[in-house]
Amino acid sequence: MGLGYLRVRVFAGYETVPIVRASIVIKNTDGGTLYNLTSDSSGLTQTVELLAPDKSVGLEPSDQYPYSVCDTDVRADGYGAVTVRDVQIFDGETTVLPVNMEAAPPGLSGADQEFIIPPSTLITQSEWEQNGPPEEQRRARMLREVIIPTYIVVHLGSPSNTEAENLRVNFTDYIKNVASHELYPTWPDAALRANIYCQISFAINRVYTEWYPSQGYNFNITNSTAYDQYFVKGGNVFDNISKIVDEIFNQYIRRTGHMEPFFSAFCNGTTVRCPGLSQWGTVPLAEQGRAPIEILKSFYPNDIQIVTSNNIQNIPQSYPGNPLNTGASGADVKKMQDNLNRIRVNYPLIPVISKPDGKFGAQTAEAVRVFQSVFDLTPDGVIGKSTWYKISSVYNAVANLGELDSEGELIGLGAAPPGVVLREGDRGRDVVSLQYILNFIAEFYANVPAVLRNSLFDIATRDSVLAFQKNFNLAQDGVVGPSTWAALYQVYRSVEASVPKMPPAPGLQPAYPGAPLRMGSRGENVVLLQTFLSAIAGYYPSIPKPAVDGVFGGVTQSAVIAFQRLFALAADGIVGPATWNKITEVYSSDSAGQAPPAPGAPYPGAPLRVGSQGANVRILQQYINAIADAYPSIPKVTVDGVFGSGTQAAVLAFQRLFALTPDGIAGPRTWDGLVYQYGRAASGRAATMAVAQAMSGVMLGRMLLKV
What we know:
Strand content: 5-15%
Number of strands: 17
Low-confidence stretches: 135-139, 504-508, 590-595, 684-707
Largest sheet: 5 strands, mixed
Number of domains: 6
Radius of gyration: 27 Å
Mean pLDDT: 83
Shape: globular
């Protein structure tokens, strides 16, 4: 037997919103629990070990599965549960399970999801063999130029299956998924690359020829193996395949003298044979030392070549051609620094680049390394092609959400849906609001298509409404009546609440709103209050952290009372002038009113353990609390300078998480680990401050005018 690895990534909005504190249970196929995991502030779990068949099993055709399987249950407050069965584990390889969760609006059904990952096509009989090859190629439209799409629309069935759903999938994620279910990650690198070139070229050919749209279909490709490639909704990917795709996703095969991507037909070469590449046939060629292009020429015409396209739709600037690393400078470095600072609003583990001046220094290198770790890239601190495009892609996604949120403010959606019925042919402001809501929801539900916001209820808007109604078990009539309006608003509000809001900048203290905030208050002033209290709670564990939802409820009241008690104010749970001014003062101070130790405090010289007391214990406790913000499996402690059982439990949790000897004693290695992780956490807080200061001036100004 061998040993494989599994890591889970949990997010909403297709990588735009990492889900923190999701509960992940890894089980064997008999239902026995193997691991209980919790996602961190980047939506990641730790990597765990699982048994797998020996790597040699997957290097030759066989009926034996070269992988083991496990089941994964994922739950998070406010989201539908996700179960993924038969996750594949290969010897020596890391399986990455991306779990995209959907908001679970109260009272609406259909939010829970279950996926079963089918066996690899290298073992199973394909639709091609069952049904014969598909119909002859029709004459298709051609695009004017070859493009690498940012997204591709996948039809989960044969073209004629009108009941199958369409999914809008990031193109690189699509190729990673296809490659991970049509190939074995244990194959030689050259064999994997040759096959992935085929899969990329096949998909780009479908886009270039507008193969399905030219026949009247509203998708780019299917997941039917009789026609196209094997995409598995909810499927796992393999880390080494993911890295290859990030490197070569914009490279494809074409024949010399031709513009169009080569139609790279392929099949597994054992249960199915076809004109074109044999997937199993690539393995011995790679083992002989053949390069990917040489392997491809063994199956395709000798004049084929591998070319690169930088015409990537929706990514505004192409890779400059040379890696960016320490010492580099210029506009490209500045662009990446600004992008990383914006991304870290959603992914706070990424440290701030406090001076994004276009000079690639140590801060930039560390921010790049953390970004690469979060998104399964090689963490070398260098912005090569794969890192450049991943930063650009994630930045576009998170920035788009911010723009959508701003659009919503401009549209001025009311607290309740409009009392009108909309149907195809209608025009006007209410249609604009409908189209905005549909587009916002489409960022989180892949089977709800986005529409052009043109104030006309056209066919595309009707199709989007129908998809929404189907997704939430409503009557599918394409008409937006009271029940559909109510569901649209309910889903929109649930999704909107999960999107990270740009915090107000410290140092700018909004004036008292003019009226007390108390239980039942709502609005932007409550959002500000909750933002302040949430930040302060990171430094004072006795203050509960409220949700930033604009509703002054029980948790917010408890946080206010705890704050008032801590700062010797009348503990009535009401935010009057004195409480408001103290909260904004404490928030706006450099460290929420309590100066934490600087990163890099030297080891005290003797281990700290139960019974220890003094300034060094206080420093340790402050380190623990700052780190616990990023790693919720570590309990927070009272900063009192006394090493009691609570501090011991937190140290143990830290040691287990970072593979240190779990003895509950802060010796030299544990202290050094705390110092390092605290430095990252401290950078994270500074980043929130700097990004907010740099990017939220207009937002804050608007809020200040309203208070």
